[in-house]
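Hi R.,

As promised on Friday, here is the backbone we talked about, encoded as structure tokens. Could you run it through your design pipeline when you get a chance and send me back a sequence?
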């Protein structure tokens, strides 16, 4: 996987212009099935291979926000929400690249990111696939169940009228609230799908959903802890500000376009 991503980004860098490189770096992050804990070691390897920080910023940003598994999960929310999520996450990666270029300095560091031995050593593809599925289920299953539980509690005890007032009737405030709620409530990508499904059915606007889907993964506490290691100095603060502003902008634009 690492070699394929490295080869793809090196090929993109050699054979495309700057704008195409920015877009493809963001799309490659979305196509990567890696979570945060897999993305940073891969980015460290890409950095050692000579990939520039701005391209890595686009790759890491979009990879944190979205992956093929999460796209599949998001289909439960409907095609419009899936389209909004893909477009918003792609644009967020592109914006991260442009911001890194504008900053004009090295923004990433990868201390102690040496390669580790692969765990996929089984020679048979089926047992290897089953072992990977088992590891993913153990890693994400509890959070997915927690999301279902939160959704059930929310539907049972929170009046629908309250949801409409918070997320639907006043869309400007709803987007701001959703962007803020994304920080403490986000568990994992799959775990938020039932919660978002309940909110949308109870009156949440698409713009509020878009804001929540950006700030959730981008400001998850464990993700922030990992990013603090690789982002230099003020870049970490700038990252937080960037995510808040981008999520708000995405939410307002989504509400405007869907009316």
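Update: got your reply. Pasting your designed sequence below so it's all in one thread:
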């Amino acid at each position: 996987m690492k070699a394929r991503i490295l080869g793809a980004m090196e090929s993109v860098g050699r054979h495309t212009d700057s704008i195409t490189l920015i877009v493809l770096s963001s799309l490659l992050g979305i196509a990567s099935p890696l979570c945060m804990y897999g993305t940073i070691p891969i980015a460290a390897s890409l950095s050692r291979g000579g990939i520039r920080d701005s391209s890595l910023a686009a790759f890491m940003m979009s990879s944190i926000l979205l992956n093929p598994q999460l796209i599949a999960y998001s289909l439960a929310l409907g095609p419009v929400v899936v389209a909004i999520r893909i477009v918003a996450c792609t644009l967020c990666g592109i914006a991260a690249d442009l911001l890194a270029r504008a900053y004009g300095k090295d923004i990433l560091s990868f201390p102690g990111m040496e390669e580790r031995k692969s765990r996929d050593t089984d020679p048979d593809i089926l047992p290897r696939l089953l072992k990977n599925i088992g590891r993913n289920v153990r890693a994400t299953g509890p959070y997915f169940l927690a999301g279902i539980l939160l959704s059930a509690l929310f539907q049972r005890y929170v009046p629908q009228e309250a949801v409409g007032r918070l997320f639907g009737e006043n869309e400007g405030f709803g987007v701001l609230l959703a962007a803020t709620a994304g920080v403490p409530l986000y568990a994992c990508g799959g775990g938020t799908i039932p919660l978002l499904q309940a909110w949308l059915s109870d009156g949440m606007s698409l713009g509020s959903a878009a804001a929540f889907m950006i700030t959730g993964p981008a400001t998850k506490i464990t993700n922030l802890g990992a990013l603090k290691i690789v982002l230099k100095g003020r870049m970490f603060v700038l990252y937080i500000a960037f995510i808040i502003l981008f999520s708000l902008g995405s939410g307002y634009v989504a509400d405007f376009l869907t009316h």
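One thing I noticed while checking it: The chain has two domains: 1-103, 123-259.

Thanks again,
M.
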